[in-house]
Amino acid sequence: PGYVRFLTLVYATLGSSYKTVCAAQSVIGALACVLLYLVAKRLCGVRVARLAAIFGAVNFHMIFAAAAVGHQALDVYWTLLLVWCLLEYLEQPQRLGRWMPALGLILGWAVLTREGNLAFWVFLIPWFLLAARVRVGWRRAALHVAVLSVFAWLVVRPFMGQGSLQGRMGAQWFFYPYAGVDINKWFNPWRDGAAAWALLADQPLRVLSVVGRGLLGNFNAMFMNQGFGAFDPVFLLRWSTYFYGLWAYAFLFAFIGLVRVVWRALRQPAASLGWWLILTVLVSRSLIHLFFEAAYRHRTPLEPYLILLAAYGATRLFSRDLPLTFRLNRLK
Q1: Distance CA 155, CA 34 (A)
Q2: Contact at 8 Å (CB) between 112 and 1?
Q3: pLDDT tens sequence across 193-236
Q4: Residue 231's pLDDT is what?
Q5: What are the pLDDT digits (tens) for 259-271?
Q6: Separation of alpha carbons 211 and 146, rounded Å
Q7: Are 314 and 51 in contact (CB under 8 A)?
Q8: Are 80 and 305 a contacting pair, CB within 8 Å?
Q9: What number of other Cβ atoms are within 10 A of residue 79's Cβ?
Q10: CA angle 320, 324, 327 (to 5 degrees)
Q11: Rounded to an integer, what distance in angstroms lies between the CA atom of residue 180 and that of residue 47?
């Protein structure tokens, strides 16, 4: 319903034209690149922020999401805005804690724009109680997340009850048969819980094997497939040697960034609260699609954070603080 209201606003103010909607979304997409810059600058400094913003500006996935009619552009924008606000909150929790009602309204509208943000909302609760408490204490952290959740609920509440959540979950459960078996019909606890648990009790190894293949298939569809467009402004012609080679570097940089972020977050958790927030976004928005409908387009809300990891990994790999021979050995 959030995107429908956005279309209503555009049609009422700018006219009911497909090109007008695309133009409005393109502006929002450009603002998302600015937010990506601000998020990266807060976490890593100016050098990584500039690289991340450039990557975002030429990334076909983000360009397509911003230009094509659909909720993806607004999903990216609202989530980035919320993440940036929470990073600012970590810097000044006592003062910015008073802005939790406004952040709750943003979160609620993000959920209405894309229901996958409901998972982000759920994961934010432990992030506040386990991470933000380091800065403000657990009582104030609990108060802040409670206020955030109440105001998010006030936004979402008028639209609750419009369709069955369980029915939608049942319809989306392993939507594509990547495992070679239609798990949606064969093992669906949302649609027929009793039959699903009976099958699990009778054939536990087969159920786990098939579901495992389904999870792997969903992961491959989201993260290892570049399915939009025949031509890309950076990666050029799809399925060419150049295309595969450049994507290999993109994955390499993102993997290096992810490993360094996780290693740092585990070794210095209190000093890495912002990175824990980024990991919270990645896990929450990935997890729901690993078990439900998963395709290349569902990576859209994750793309800014994957770009951030790639920019961070690239700058660390080619850091001037490291000897040239060491940097070259890293690539071997």
Answers
A1: 26
A2: yes
A3: 899 999 999 999 999 999 999 999 999 988 887 766 556 777 77
A4: 61
A5: 999 999 999 988 8
A6: 35
A7: yes
A8: no
A9: 26
A10: 85
A11: 45
Query: Which are the contacts of 257, defined by CB distance < 8 A and separation ≥ 6?
Result: 308, 309, 310, 311, 312, 313, 314, 316
DSSP string covering 246-279, please? Answer: HHHHHHHHHHHHHHHHHHHHHHSGGG-HHHHHHH
**Residue found by looking up tokens 């979950």 in the block:** 169
Report the share of the chain in percent with pLDDT over 70: 93
Do 110 and 82 contact (CB within 8 A), yes or no? Answer: yes
By residue count, the chain amounts to 332
**Residues facing residue 49 across a β-bridge:** none
Place of tokens 């939507």: 175
Please report how many Cα atoms fall inside a 13 Å half-sphere around the Cα of residue 12, on the Cβ side.
6
Give, for 236, the enclosing helix (H) or strand (E): strand 236-237
pLDDT at residue number 324: 43
Q: Check residue 263 and give its pLDDT.
A: 94
Query: pLDDT digit string (tens) for 30-68?
Result: 999 999 999 999 999 999 999 999 999 888 888 888 888
pLDDT score at 161? 64
pTM of the model: 0.88
- Dihedral (CA of 271, 275, 281, 287) sign: negative
How far apart CA 284 and CA 299 sit, in angstroms, is 12
